[in-house]
Structures are given as C-alpha cells and as structure tokens.
Amino acid sequence: MGDSHSHGHSHSHTNLKGRKLLLSILLNIIITVAQVIGGLISGSLSLLSDALHNFSDVLSLIVSFIADLYSKKEASLTKTFGYKRAEIIAAFVNALSLILVAIYLVYEAVERFLNPQAIESGIVIWLAVLGIAANGFSVLLLKKDSKENMNMRSAYLHLLTDMSASVAVLIGGLLMKYFGWFWVDSVLTVLIAIYLIVMGWDLFKQSFKVLMLYTPDHLNIEEISSKIIEISEIKNVHHVHVWQLNEKEIHLEAHIVLERDVTISQFDSISETVEELLFHDYEINHVTLQPEWNKDDVKDIIVQD
After folding, report:
1. What number of other Cβ atoms are within 10 A of residue 128's Cβ?
2. Are 24 and 138 in contact (CB under 8 A)?
3. Alpha carbon distances (Å) from 104 to 107, 127, 170, 302
4. pLDDT grade, residue 6 (50/70/90)?
5. Spatial separation of the C-alpha atoms in residues 280 and 161, rounded to whole Å
6. For residues 143 and 159, what is the distance between their CA atoms, to the nearest angstrom?
7. Are the CB atoms for 254 and 238 separated by under 8 Å?
C-alpha cells in the first residue's frame, strides 16, 4: 500500500509541476507581446531588452515544460535510461540562451548610449509594473520545485531575473519621466545583461558537467576507492567511473580485485557491502562492479580506454 500511495503522490506532484509551468508560459507570452508593442511605441531599449529577455523565458519555459513531460516517459529497449536527461538538457539550453541574449543586449545598449534618444516614459512605467506583477506570481509558483530540480531551477531563475529586470526598468522609467535622464535606459540594459550572465553561468556549468559525465563536485574518487579497499575481501579498486545521470541518480562502475577466488554467492555478499557503503556515505545509488582475481590488466584508478 505504501508504494502505491507514494507513486500516486509523486505523479500528482509532477502533473502540478507541469501545470505551474504552463501557467507561467501563458503569463510570459502576454508580458512579451505587451512589452514589444510598448517598447516600439515608447522607443525604450530597456523595455525591448526586457521583452527579449521575456521571449527567451517563453522559449525556455516551453523547453522546460516539454522536458518535464519527457522525463516521466518509461525506459525502453532502445532508450534504456528513458528520458531522465531531458531536464538536464533543458537546463543547459536555457542557461546558454540567457548568456547569448545578454551579450546581444550589451551590444544594443552601447549603440544606444552613443546615440541617445527621447523615450515615452509613461508606457515604460506601466509595462514594467505589469512585468513585476506577472513574473512575481510565476516566481512564487515555481519557488518550491526549484529547490529540488535543475530544470525547474532554470525556469525559476529566468523568471526571477525577469522580475528583477522589470523592477530596474520601472526605476529607469521614473527617472526618465521626472528627470529626463534618457541615458539611464542604456545603463539599465547593460545591468540587466550582466545579471543574466551571472545567473546563467552557474547553471550552464552545472548542467554541462552532468552532460559531460564529470564526477560530481562533492565526490572524491581516490577517497571512495580507499574506503572500498578497507573492506577485507577486496584487494584493489581500479577502472573507476562516477557520473550523474540526472539530479537524483549517481552511478559508479569499477573493477575490484578480490583477495581470493570466491563463489558467485560470496561475491553477491561483497557487492552488497560495497553498495551499502557507497549509498550510506556518498549517496551513490547505482553501482556496477566487475570482479577480478589474478587478472593481468592495468590497475590504475582511472584507466583511459
């Protein structure tokens, strides 16, 4: 009974996650259209940059939504891991898009700073308020899920930077309205762009490391190997690979040299001891061990094929 209840709960939770993303997508489409029209009418680059940022959000949220759907699909004979990496790929694409949008915004801002022009600040102010309200609501929707999922975190970061950008645009609109400081528009655009790069870079690195099968940052292979060798029946550990499949699964595979020639049932017992150690101490939850005894091969921890 316990298993079926937990499965039902997680299923409804992931459905809710998808619905939250869908609502955020619709809100962002409304903001984007409004800001593009408002930016063109008012002549505000910071409003257009915020619209471009919002448009990148719409794309990233759609990618996140599709990834969320795919990540629930079952494994098959041709896709033995299922689509468990879909959300990591979504996070990578989203982070990269943030950085590329930011670089383009800096270029546009410099052009505008060298050739400043008058801006209709009233439109800027009201659309910035709309952006703050809609993005603020979306941020609250996704905040809880962002703490436990890289894909949802990428969507959440996009929306959080959007809300911050809208606050900056609002302040800029007020400065332009009451002081006539139209150069503020370009400065704000650059600040929004820098913020995008800072927020996107960390997520880009994290998702890149997972896609490249890097050893997770918090794990030390030499330390793990020495812990395994402390088990009395094991003489040596070599040809070790440790990687993340997604945020929930860490895999380890290794060759282990045994102290003596053992039966399969004895090896099963040794294998269980290793698995318990790795899960308890390092939260490694998928372990594949290849037993060896008197085999003539390279005994380095890392073996380059």
Report:
1. 26
2. yes
3. 5, 22, 21, 42
4. very low
5. 37
6. 10
7. yes
- What pLDDT digit, counting tens, does each position of 200-237 carry? 898 899 999 999 999 999 999 999 999 999 999 999 99
Instruction: For the chain, give the percent of residues with pLDDT over 70.
Output: 95
- HSE-CB at 124 with a 13 A cutoff on CA atoms is 30
According to DSSP, the residues that pair with 286 across neighbouring strands are 251
Nearest to 125 by CA among 189, 174, 184, 54: 174
**CA atoms within 13 Å, Cβ hemisphere of 38:** 26
**Residue 33 backbone dihedrals phi, psi, to 5 degrees:** -60, -45
Note the pLDDT of residue 301.
93
**Whether the Cβ atoms of residue 234 and residue 259 lie closer than 8 Å to each other:** yes
Average pLDDT over residues 88-113: 86
Residue at 50: amino acid letter = D
- The 10s digit of each residue's pLDDT in 271-302 is 999 999 999 999 999 999 999 999 998 989 99
| Cβ atoms of residues 250 and 283 within 8 Å | yes
Question: Which residue in this structure is represented by tokens 């004979």?
Answer: 77
The model's pTM: 0.76
Quick one: pLDDT at residue 60? 77
- Confidence class of residue 15 from pLDDT cuts 50, 70 and 90? low
Q: Are 201 and 99 in contact (CB under 8 A)?
A: yes
Q: Which two tokens stand for residue 253?
A: 């595979």
What share of the chain in percent tops pLDDT 90?
35
Paired sense of beta strands 234-244 and 250-258, if any: antiparallel
Q: Is 253 helix (H, G, I), strand (E, B) or coil?
A: strand
- Continuous H helices in the chain: 2-42, 45-70, 86-114, 121-146, 150-179, 184-211, 221-229, 264-282
Tell me which residue has tokens 């008012």.
42
Cα dihedral sign, 12-163-110-119: positive
Give dist(CA 215, CA 283) in Å, integer: 13
